[in-house]
Amino acid sequence: MNHTHELFIASILGGAIGDALGYRVEFMKLDNIHSQFGKHGITELSIDPVTGKSLISDDTQMTLFTIEGLRWAYDRCSRRGIGSYAGSGTYQSYLRWYFTQTGEMPTEKEMIWLEPQLYEENDSLLNYKELFFQRAPGMTCLSALASGKMGTIGQPINHSKGCGGVMRVAPVGLFLHHEPEYAFKVATEIAAITHGHPTGYLSAGAFATIIAELINGKNLNESIITAISILKAYRLHRETLEAIEKAITFAAGNENIEHSIHQLGEGWIAEEALAIALYCALKRTDGSEALIISVNHDGDSDSTGAICGNILGAAYGLKAFPQDWIERIELKDLIIDRATKLATLCDKAFVS
Question: Signal peptide: which range, if any (predicted)?
Answer without folding.
Answer: none
